[in-house]
Amino acid sequence: MAYGGWRWFWRRFRRAGGAALVSAVVVVAALGGCGAPGSSGDGGAAGGDEQVLNDNIGSEPPTLDPALMTDLTSFQIVNSVMEGLTRIGPDGVEPGMAETWDISDDQLTYTFHLRDAVWQNGDPVTANDFVYAWLRVLNPETAAPYAYQLYYIKNAEAYNSGELTDPAQVGVKALDEKTLQVTLEAPTPYFLSLTAFPTLMPVHQATVESNPNWAGEATTYVGNGPFKIAEWVHDSHIDLVKSDTYWDKDTVRLEKMHIVMVNEGSTAETMFANGDLDSNGNLNPQDVPQLLASGEAKTSPMISVTSIYFNTKKEPFDDPRVRKAFTLALDRKAIVEQILKGGQKPALAFVPFGIPNPVSGKDFREEAGDYFTDADVETARRLLAEAGYPNGQGFPKVTYLYNDNDTNRALAEAYQQMWKQNLGVQVELQSMEWKVFLETQRQGNYDLSRGNWVGDYLDPMTFLDLWVTGGGNNRIGWSNPEYDRLIAEAKATSDQEIRFRNMHEAERILMDEMAIGPIFFGVNVYQEKPYVKGVFRTALGTTDYKWAYIEGKGQ
Amino acid sequence: MQYAGQRLVVTIITLWAIATLTFFMMRAVPGGPFSAEKELPPAVLANLEARYHLDWPLWRQYLDYLYRTAVWDLGPSFTYPNRTVNDIVRDGFRVSAALGALAIAVALVAGIGVGVAAALYHARWPDRLAMFAATMGISIPNFILSGLLIYVFAYHLRWLPAGLWGKPAQAVMPTLALAALPTAVIARLVRSNMLEVLRQDFITVCQAKGLSPARVVFVHALRSAVLPVITYLGPLAAGVLTGSFVVENIFAIPGLGKYFVQSVTNRDYSVIMGVTMFYSALLVVANVLVDLAYRLVDPRIRL
């Protein structure tokens, strides 16, 4: 049987308790005659290379308004229908609506020269569209959740928080129809890649002002990207067609994308196996190991890290030796290979692979290497003994907190067992519903908890500034003045050499103190037929179809 | 008339109680619509709270919400800022209702048919087979049945599409998955009542008067035997409409069911309230209709 079908079938049964196996078989026999021949969609395969891509994004994008979106599903669609000043492509930052740009010597002023591009309704894209879009994001009344992605711009934060009421003082101006000038608060070497981020994309002023819900329907949406929304049936599918007004339309080869929203991984996998889908970004986690092993699923790097957060304000995890002992006692190789089986990499440091250092040209992670040895049980035991708990004796009762799902539960049980076996410590497990977990973690009501972080932009800073004293995402209560100084200095300078030196040094301090215990670096798992070419998957988890095409489907 | 008035008052009080309980329970649960793995800066959070009036005192939010529920204008969803709750409920319910109606129709026709056949062939092989299948229909959870159907008819035989909604072929498997349990329940109800009715004196009288067996069974006996099925229709409609979440999710059907669960997970307050109040109103009305239908079928019943 192809595709390990029975195994797929059996897994479903085991998950359900398996009790109904025999009875189910009888029912199938009874229903055998009921099914009418249907249109499974795999008939009538195109002879040549019809440039149509059938994709699955798993769920309804919450919004396609660049100002309001915060999730990867929305980002994926908006990358196709909108374009910012720049676009992140296979070769890094590429010109988008901006054809060229000048950066002042102090790296505080960016002058973007826009190309002759038009909106999908024929209106020209002007510098004012950007000014309008960015001020709209920052306007407190818009309540844009990702407004802080623009805080690098002069006075942006003050305007967004209501301290400043005059938008003219925000550092973004249209010098003329085609020239946009942006003034920053401090040098931000990754600002050009940020201008590709959805929150900084332009919007069509007249459209937005005429209908507050313009971004909720295909008929009212006006974009400027490589594709145009032809149809949007909520919770069902979005159809995109190639835009004939896009400035770089000659590069775009796909004529149509039919993007369905199938949330159940197993159903999407069946549709992929049947040929109803050419690519699928939503898999059932339990099926991933088998699909990867058989080559039916692939992985791409993603800058994310899953760690154990220690409550550094509470005994016994206020002692770095205990934190280190707990980190070293875990066998990441076994966790990744035997439990996750999804292509993840053991994390022996905090910043993931995939972020280049522009000075050396090397990967930040490879440059710094590992900060500790995996499953270093001997050192772990020694450190725990030094902290006053030889063989775990006298260790207080502690609890590991996680949000409930199959993977997290399996991980928690593995940690528990390894800590017991390697350190002689009994750790209780507690699972919570997602938002309750977040709230509990935020309030610091835990000893140990699951932590996960996905980068927002391609720079180590997106990971390292989490742990500055009092930082909004610093849910471990850790504080180190030297660390704070290094991060502040890196943020204030435009000298990449100093920045990267400081960031390496900061990571060393973080790992020395083991404020968090890194476990593994994540990956993006997807299915894609061999005839789908040119899809660009970023390490930030988004997918770009501008360069995608179909080749050899008929063969 | 007096009865109708009483029912109306009770209905309004019931809905108010549900609205109040839901509102305060929802707010008592930790975590809000904007809590996320990535913490929002305080200024951004303040802007969001101001926009959705979460900065108002609770009593004012409660009164505002009661008013908006009464006029059925529940505002935008927190998760889907460009869609109003009214849109979400309308679009989703249209699909859920179509799927539910199909499932109920299948369950009624198949359930009554199988039940009658089982009663007529009491203690013989058709009866045993029907009751075996009914036991199975009750004991197999619908997500297992859904998976099994997809495996057999979509993956293996490739007769039917694995998911999505809109074409007739796409409705076959979800309808069967959703109809299995009510079909089994109805078949058992009809069978046991039919057996009882067939033993009663008036059936003997009918037979003695020389009525055809078909007329005796389908006109006289069935009319009595089907009464419990009508009682069951209220909870059945409720169960099918609110319980279709799993089936809708497996077959990627854009129904309202998923919002029932998803809105709670997201703490999408306006959708939680909208879906809860919509279903509550629907159930209350369904119960009243069942009472009326009961009276129509059996005039001896006084309401």
From TrEMBL, chain A:
<dbReference type="InterPro" id="IPR030678">
    <property type="entry name" value="Peptide/Ni-bd"/>
</dbReference>
<comment type="similarity">
    <text>Belongs to the bacterial solute-binding protein 5 family.</text>
</comment>
<dbReference type="InterPro" id="IPR039424">
    <property type="entry name" value="SBP_5"/>
</dbReference>
<dbReference type="Pfam" id="PF00496">
    <property type="entry name" value="SBP_bac_5"/>
</dbReference>
<dbReference type="GO" id="GO:0043190">
    <property type="term" value="C:ATP-binding cassette (ABC) transporter complex"/>
</dbReference>
<keyword id="KW-0813">Transport</keyword>
<dbReference type="GO" id="GO:0030288">
    <property type="term" value="C:outer membrane-bounded periplasmic space"/>
</dbReference>
<dbReference type="GO" id="GO:0015833">
    <property type="term" value="P:peptide transport"/>
</dbReference>
<dbReference type="GO" id="GO:1904680">
    <property type="term" value="F:peptide transmembrane transporter activity"/>
</dbReference>
<feature type="domain" description="Solute-binding protein family 5">
    <location>
        <begin position="93"/>
        <end position="474"/>
    </location>
</feature>
<keyword id="KW-0732">Signal</keyword>
<protein>
    <submittedName>
        <fullName>Extracellular solute-binding protein family 5</fullName>
    </submittedName>
</protein>
<dbReference type="InterPro" id="IPR000914">
    <property type="entry name" value="SBP_5_dom"/>
</dbReference>
<dbReference type="InterPro" id="IPR018247">
    <property type="entry name" value="EF_Hand_1_Ca_BS"/>
</dbReference>
From TrEMBL, chain B:
<keyword id="KW-0813">Transport</keyword>
<feature type="transmembrane region" description="Helical">
    <location>
        <begin position="97"/>
        <end position="122"/>
    </location>
</feature>
<feature type="transmembrane region" description="Helical">
    <location>
        <begin position="7"/>
        <end position="26"/>
    </location>
</feature>
<keyword id="KW-1003">Cell membrane</keyword>
<keyword id="KW-0472">Membrane</keyword>
<feature type="transmembrane region" description="Helical">
    <location>
        <begin position="225"/>
        <end position="251"/>
    </location>
</feature>
<comment type="similarity">
    <text>Belongs to the binding-protein-dependent transport system permease family.</text>
</comment>
<dbReference type="InterPro" id="IPR035906">
    <property type="entry name" value="MetI-like_sf"/>
</dbReference>
<protein>
    <submittedName>
        <fullName>Binding-protein-dependent transport systems inner membrane component</fullName>
    </submittedName>
</protein>
<feature type="transmembrane region" description="Helical">
    <location>
        <begin position="171"/>
        <end position="190"/>
    </location>
</feature>
<dbReference type="GO" id="GO:0055085">
    <property type="term" value="P:transmembrane transport"/>
</dbReference>
<feature type="domain" description="ABC transmembrane type-1">
    <location>
        <begin position="93"/>
        <end position="294"/>
    </location>
</feature>
<keyword id="KW-1133">Transmembrane helix</keyword>
<feature type="transmembrane region" description="Helical">
    <location>
        <begin position="129"/>
        <end position="151"/>
    </location>
</feature>
<dbReference type="Pfam" id="PF00528">
    <property type="entry name" value="BPD_transp_1"/>
</dbReference>
<keyword id="KW-0812">Transmembrane</keyword>
<dbReference type="GO" id="GO:0005886">
    <property type="term" value="C:plasma membrane"/>
</dbReference>
<feature type="transmembrane region" description="Helical">
    <location>
        <begin position="271"/>
        <end position="294"/>
    </location>
</feature>
<dbReference type="InterPro" id="IPR000515">
    <property type="entry name" value="MetI-like"/>
</dbReference>
